[in-house]
Amino acid sequence: MVNPVLLLAVPLGLAFLTPLLAFISDRIARYVPVAGMLFNCVVSVSLIPSVLNRPIIVQTGGFAPPFGINLVAGPLGITLAAVIALVGLAVSVYGLAYVKEGATVKYHVLYLLLLTGATGVVLTGDIFNLFVFYEILCISSYALVAYSGDKNGVEAAVKYLIQGSIGSGLALIGIAILYGVFGTLNMADIARNIGSTGILNTTLFIALAFMVAGFGVEAAVFPLNAWLPDAHSSAPAPISAILSGIAIKVGIYVVVRIVFTVFGAPSMFMLLVVIGVVTLLIGEMSAFSQNNIKRMLAYSSVGQVGLIVFALGMATTGGISGGLFQIISHALAKSLLFLATGYMIYRSGSMEISSLQGMGKRMPLTCCAFTIGAFSLVGLPPFAGFPGKFMIVRAAIAQQQHLFTFLIALVLFGTIIEACYFFRIVQAAYFTGPREEPDAGKQRREEAPLFALAPMLGLLVFIIALGVYPEPVIRLLDSCAAELLNRFDYIKGVLG
Amino acid sequence: MRSLIAVILLAVIGLGLALCLSDMPFGANHIATAEKAGRHYLEKAPQETGSANVVTAVVVTYRGFDTLGEVTVLFIAAIGLGMVLYRRKKQEGKPPQPASFVLQTGCCFLFPLILILGVYIFLHGHLTPGGGFQGGVIVASGFLLAYIGCADMKIRHRWFEATESLAGSAFVIAGMAGLAAGGSFLMNFMPKGNFNTLFSAGIIPIIYIAIGLKVGAELTGLIANLLERAE
Amino acid sequence: MSFLFENSYYIAAVGLILIGLYIMAAKKNLIKVIIGLSFFETGINVLLIAAGYIRGGSAPIFSHPDMQAGKMVDPTPQALVLTAIVIGVAVLALALSLAVRLYEHHGTLNLRKIRELKW
């Protein structure tokens, strides 16, 4: 069995080595993220069967959990690590073709470190270590948003940086309070100290509030997501794909892990449900009114975050595995959409939706990928979005409360809005001719290059496979949900 | 309106903090019992790690994984800054006035002394206050002084990048060696030596040398990039 | 009065945090906002260190054979602050480099004048 610490150590080592490799040849350095993510993909998938039996607790430095930092490779951590590695692999292959100008080596190093930070956050079992990896994720994404160095990118990066660092500062205050009260930083140890009363005293509640508000900035839940549309729309296409596909999911993971495992605070669940629905409606309505396609996709991510938070807040096995399924399907579909739009924008030279007219003829394969990604997001069978949304609806109805029936009606209304704006683009791409035709005889076929099409195809295969045959993944996610719901098993697993 | 909302939010945050802090009185012994991590470090660190400086023992061995992350954050800052400022327009205007002879001589005299101080600090990280980060910052401050004082000084950026890269890899390789030798990443697998002497504490001085070189190179790179003197 | 002396570190920490946040909310100039961010981070670091203090404790270094583990302050927050400071430096360096770029594009650092930067 492979030690899960290699999921972090190998990409970090590769990232440190990249500048040296770049002295030999820039070409080799470009392939480093692909190699790192391929390694992570293989290792994390191979670990899934063994962590389903029993979570693997890895010590670092050879010290037992409350004293040393430990990694907890449970079903949830390894599943998310596998998703991160999979999407990361696809997007890094795309980056080989897309990222041509500027400081390319630095881009690839930061890209690899961003994904390593995300992997570290989902695997660690120590709250301060989680903060450190969270900062690795955040700081590398601040820099990557400004990669192109143009006006919009730099402005979005400044906005993201200021709001993100206020958020992580607040989270650090929460961690400091927890340490001051309990004298420990291990998540399982804190959870054991908090106990199972379900009612938090004032101090703990304030600490929880600081941490949820702080980490909620990256999760982009409703009042804290002002940075998102700018950052996701001005970043280069592969980075938008990673930010939308991975980074906000990691934020959601942190919030959920803190609320469920560390604090075990049922009083927060209802809040998550309400915030989720509000975020969903605001995101979808804002997306509907956009003319810029990347901003539209960014707002659509806000809406999907709302849906995921709503599902996770239900705190039933069905709800949580539905939410996690939605995390996976959204990670695949949204990164596919951003990758496809990357070249569509590159060819048409504009981000306006109207400039995509006739794209169905100009770039048929890319457009087809975009369409399938959009269908999957909307939740049409047989794509990956359908089982996720179906599970969420079923879980909400199974609650047998009028409130949840009402909320799920609002969620479905949001889905209809989503369908409207996605079909508008599909219609523009396929069913309207190009706006102006300089000379009709030269109807060019300008497909995206092979290195960009291959990862899109890969994501497509996964989207269809998940949509047609979701059972194994649902079984996996059910044990992830059990990990979140049974915090005493987690505590016992880590502390013995 | 805007500042009113800000003040209300600040009042809420301040009140929340005050309520929390009343629950953790200043100076109270919050690590009284042996199962608390802090107490464990104070009691056991000398035997378990061989380091006289307990903070160093915590930074490098008990929470060594944090330190690896921390080194990575600084690496990201150095790379990200280089990326953001990549190929920016040269500022027009006259070049800075060269420093006077006295200032130049003083800087050139102090520069090696500061470097030696920095190296001393990170070599003795396991014995005295200080360590890799502190020593690295002192080394970088020496380069900053040289920059400001000696106007004609240029930096070979490649050397710093190579140092950075090698030192970072050395940290990860030391961790991997622990994994291979002791079964756990960043394990202190080397002999502990005589307590409270320079050659003690196993792997700690080696990691701190790597960190010191890396931090020094990275911060110098940051300064060079911001001062537009890099080649 | 004794309350103030007792809790002077906490008061300093909370004060720095609040001042930093106020600067970030109220000031227009990006450099001032970054200074506010630095205040905020310093406040958090002081808070962490103050949370680890034990009355009458010495620095946790066994530099002399007579030193007793029972008379030392908690070493963990000091290690955490080291990490937090480094993270703060990284964020500040990146923020300043972005400010340089922003100034090149707009010729000003006044956030109100940079239209898209509404928050």
What count of domains describes the coordinates of chain C? Answer: 1
**What is the oligomeric state here?**
heterotrimer
Biggest protein-protein interface?
A-B, 65 and 61 residues
| Helix content, binned percent of chain C | 55-70%
Radius of gyration of chain B (CA) equals 22 Å
Which architecture of chain C does the CATH hierarchy give at level 2? Orthogonal Bundle
What does the average pLDDT of chain C come to? 86
Annotation, overall tally of beta strands of chain B: 0
Please indicate the percent range of residues of chain B in DSSP E strands (runs of 2 or more).
under 5%
Distance between the termini of chain C: 41 Å
Report, as a whole number of angstroms, the end-to-end distance of chain B.
49 Å
Shape of chain C from CA axes? elongated
Tell me the series of helices and strands of chain B, N- to C-terminal: HHHHHHHH
Biggest sheet layout of chain B: none
What does it look like?
- The complex is a heterotrimer of chains A (496), B (231) and C (119).
- In chain A, 77% of the residues lie in helices and 2% in strands.
- Chain A is built from 21 helices and two strands.
- In chain A, strands 1-2 form a two-stranded antiparallel ribbon.
- The longest helix of chain A is centred in the middle third of the chain and has 32 residues, at 151-182.
- The mean pLDDT of chain A is 89.
- By secondary structure, chain B is mainly α.
- In chain B, α5 (101-123) runs antiparallel to α6 (132-149).
- Chain B is globular, with a radius of gyration of 22 Å.
- The model of chain C has no long low-confidence stretch (mean pLDDT 86).
- Chains in contact: A-B, A-C, B-C.
- The interface between A and B is large, with 65 and 61 residues.
